[in-house]
């Protein structure tokens, strides 16, 4: 009996749209607006695809399930992801009940003769239904009037991302299904088996991410035209940081360590120390530019990787400045020692040409003069500001002058070689402390 029905079904698909098969005869439907499903005796007449099941009564229960076939790309610059999904919807239409306990898979083109839900993907930018070699749709009819409607869809969905912790970030994305025109008084959306309604997402292998967890939600969307049912699949994606450690973090750290080599080179080796400093600065600049170009459209974010590269650049630049300070202090000290060494040489020549008595007399006289000059310098540097004959503004100037001399004395480098000695310890120590705070903050807070 059913073979006969399906033979007429095939004949109907070959006839023009103005004519329709109905249980062994062809009827002219030019003046009729009602549609009927051919091949079933109790479904040929009185079925209107423009009216939902239970029209004017209780809402239609629509149960959904998803298979995630793939997530092909996740774009940080465009803040979206592209996924291919199998969407399955089930509902019951009492107008399609037939005798028996079997189910029949119908031609997908017969969906044009049935009422189907107006489900759409919220926040979808681009979507299409696969149609090779035919439209990837499935219609299965059960004897109790239940309809299974399956689609294969590829969609690009927006996903708002917080890239402040990039590349140690975890992103939360959503796939939301909602009714476009029917509100909650007409249709009710439910997940078929709760979290078990979603399959395939735990088996995905993504290039930069790992699926941490996922869960399903049932919600409502309150619009001006009414309250609409909504189903939500929410999943968390954790970025794999190992690639970025090998690509960016390790090279930048090695450049910082390379800049410390200059601390073991003497101050007189100007070309060597200058070459190391300039080379590391330029290399670090190139690394920073390459890192920012990989996410050219998200430069408004201050990312974790930008913070680390900025720290490394600061240490490298600091090592170059350290040599400039040490070399300048060394040259100033040499200039100050120059006249003293010259006078000492002249004094040696004069001592060779006089006798022992003259040597003793000249030594005593020079020592007395030195003591008198030292006392004058000390008194000039630390002038007694408590003199009663001094005026008030002179006392204030005197106090400020003494304090300035003390402050300048604190920052005066007595031995330039000690700058390199302290830098060998302080630069690595501070860099390690900064790294501890950096990784602790971005990994655990």
Automatic annotation (TrEMBL):
Signal peptide: 1-24
GO MF entries: GABA-A receptor activity; GABA-gated chloride ion channel activity
GO cellular component terms listed in the entry, alphabetical order: apical plasma membrane; chloride channel complex; synaptic membrane
Pfam family, one: Neur_chan_LBD
Domain (Neurotransmitter-gated ion-channel transmembrane): residue spans on this chain: 248-333
Membrane-crossing residue ranges in chain numbering: 241-263, 275-295, 307-325, 425-444
Membrane topology of the entry: Multi-pass membrane protein
Subcellular location per the Swiss-Prot or TrEMBL entry: Apical cell membrane; Synaptic cell membrane
Catalytic activity: chloride(in) = chloride(out)
Subunit structure: Heteropentamer, formed by a combination of alpha (GABRA1-6), beta (GABRB1-3), gamma (GABRG1-3), delta (GABRD), epsilon (GABRE), rho (GABRR1-3), pi (GABRP) and theta (GABRQ) chains, each subunit exhibiting distinct physiological and pharmacological properties.
Function: Pi subunit of the heteropentameric ligand-gated chloride channel gated by gamma-aminobutyric acid (GABA). GABA-gated chloride channels, also named GABA(A) receptors (GABAAR), consist of five subunits arranged around a central pore and contain GABA active binding site(s) located at the alpha and beta subunit interfaces. When activated by GABA, GABAARs selectively allow the flow of chloride anions across the cell membrane down their electrochemical gradient. Pi-containing GABAARs are mostly located in peripheral tissues.
UniProt similarity note: Belongs to the ligand-gated ion channel (TC 1.A.9) family. Gamma-aminobutyric acid receptor (TC 1.A.9.5) subfamily. GABRP sub-subfamily.
Protein name stated in the entry: Gamma-aminobutyric acid receptor subunit pi
Lineage: Eukaryota, Metazoa, Chordata, Craniata, Vertebrata
């Amino acid at each position: 009996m059913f073979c006969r029905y399906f033979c007429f079904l095939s004949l109907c698909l070959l006839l023009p749209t103005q004519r329709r098969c109905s249980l062994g005869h062809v009827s002219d439907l030019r003046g009729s607006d009602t549609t009927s499903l051919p091949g079933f005796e109790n479904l040929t007449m009185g079925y209107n695809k423009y009216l939902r099941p239970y029209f004017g009564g209780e809402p239609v229960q629509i149960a959904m399930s998803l298979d995630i076939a793939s997530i092909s790309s996740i774009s940080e610059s465009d803040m979206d992801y592209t996924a291919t999904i199998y969407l399955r919807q089930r509902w019951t239409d009492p107008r399609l009940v037939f005798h028996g306990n079997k189910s029949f898979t119908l031609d997908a083109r017969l969906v044009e003769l049935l009422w189907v839900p107006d489900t759409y993907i919220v926040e979808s930018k681009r979507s299409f239904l696969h149609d090779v070699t035919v439209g990837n749709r499935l219609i299965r009819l059960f004897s109790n009037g239940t309809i299974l409607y399956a689609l294969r869809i590829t969609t690009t969905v927006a996903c708002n991302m917080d890239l402040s912790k990039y590349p140690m970030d975890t992103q939360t994305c959503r796939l939301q299904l909602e009714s476009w025109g029917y509100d909650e008084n007409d249709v009710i959306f439910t997940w078929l088996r709760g979290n078990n309604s979603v399959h395939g997402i735990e088996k995905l292998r993504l290039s930069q991410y790992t699926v941490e967890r996922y869960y399903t939600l049932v919600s409502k969307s309150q619009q001006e035209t009414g309250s609409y049912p909504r189903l939500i699949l929410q999943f968390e994606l954790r970025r794999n940081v190992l690639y970025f450690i090998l690509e960016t973090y390790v090279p930048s750290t090695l450049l910082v360590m390379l800049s410390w080599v200059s601390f073991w080179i003497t101050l007189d080796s100007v070309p060597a120390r200058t070459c190391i400093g300039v080379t590391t600065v330029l290399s670090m600049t190139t690394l920073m530019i390459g890192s920012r170009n990989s996410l050219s459209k998200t430069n408004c974010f201050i990312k974790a990787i930008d913070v680390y590269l900025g720290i490394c650049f600061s240490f490298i630049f600091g090592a170059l400045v350290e040599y400039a300070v040490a070399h300048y202090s060394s040259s100033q000290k040499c200039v100050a020692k120059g006249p003293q060494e010259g006078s000492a040489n002249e004094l040696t020549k004069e001592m060779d040409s006089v006798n022992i008595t003259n040597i003793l007399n000249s030594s005593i006289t020079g020592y007395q003069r030195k003591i008198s000059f030292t006392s004058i310098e000390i008194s000039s540097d630390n002038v007694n500001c408590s003199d009663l004959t001094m005026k008030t503004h002179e006392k204030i100037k005197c106090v400020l002058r003494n304090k300035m001399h003390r402050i300048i004395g604190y920052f005066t480098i007595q031995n330039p070689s000690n700058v390199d000695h302290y830098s060998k310890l302080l630069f690595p120590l501070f860099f390690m402390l900064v790294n501890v705070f950096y990784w602790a903050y971005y990994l655990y807070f």
